[in-house]
Amino acid sequence: MAFPQGVNFRSTSGYVTDPANHTYQVALTPDYPTTSPQGNNIGWTAFPTAGTRDRNSGNDARLAGENFDSAGVYRIDLPAPGSYTVFLACGDATYAQSNQKIELFDDVTSLGVLFTGAATGAANSFLDATGVARTAANWPSQNVGVTNVYASTKCIVKIGDGSNNTAIATLFVQSAGPPILGPALQMISTGMRW
């Protein structure tokens, strides 16, 4: 496994050239586990109302296309438990999007809803992980990630609210700190005593 791991969502593998540490996702069916070029298991574990588009090859490659679903579940396996930061872009280069929802999970435990009922406000605008809408020109330099502690090695992203599609353009996960240690090792590593 090699981290960080980025995934760019679109319809056609060769539509754009992915940046370093990224791969592409074009599947219209659950395809987890798929091994990425970085050596990580990734893929859709649920994709019931499947849609995928190539949109604007002139955008940053991470914003060139999308997959969308009303109840999709995407998984990236982590190298170890620990703190990880998730960056993403939800939106569409061609149409404004509304009712966007993203929730992060560590296995079955929710780490929180990042946004729900959110709107991009315009075509070619994308919500970052904090739910802030940014233009395609501004997203690459201004997007903000969300950091959580994962007790397992599963980063699960649920998209959609069950009835409205959420369009995801890119997902990027990177380590934000050392792995979680058991209580005894935490005490040793921090100098705490029994």
Enter the CATH topology name: Jelly Rolls
Distance between the termini: 35 Å
H/E order of the elements? EEEEEEEEEEEEHEEEH
The overall pLDDT average reads 91
Tally of contiguous helical segments: 2
What CATH first level would be assigned?
Mainly Beta
The structure class reads mainly beta
Helix coverage percent of residues?
under 10%
Q: State the fourth-level CATH superfamily.
A: Galactose-binding lectin
Largest sheet: 9 strands, mixed
> What would you say the CATH architecture is?
Sandwich
Relative strand content: 35-45%
Rg? 17 Å
- Net shape: globular
For the record, the count of structural domains works out to: 1
Describe this structure in words.
The protein is mainly β and 194 residues long. The chain has a single domain, classed as Jelly Rolls (Sandwich). The protein is built from two helices and 15 strands. The strands form two sheets. Strands 1, 2, 5, 6, 8, 11, 12, 13 and 15 form a nine-stranded mixed β-sheet that branches. A six-stranded antiparallel β-sheet has the order 3-4-7-14-9-10, with no helix packed on it. A hairpin with a 5-residue loop joins strand 3 and strand 4. The longest helix is centred in the C-terminal third of the chain and has 8 residues.
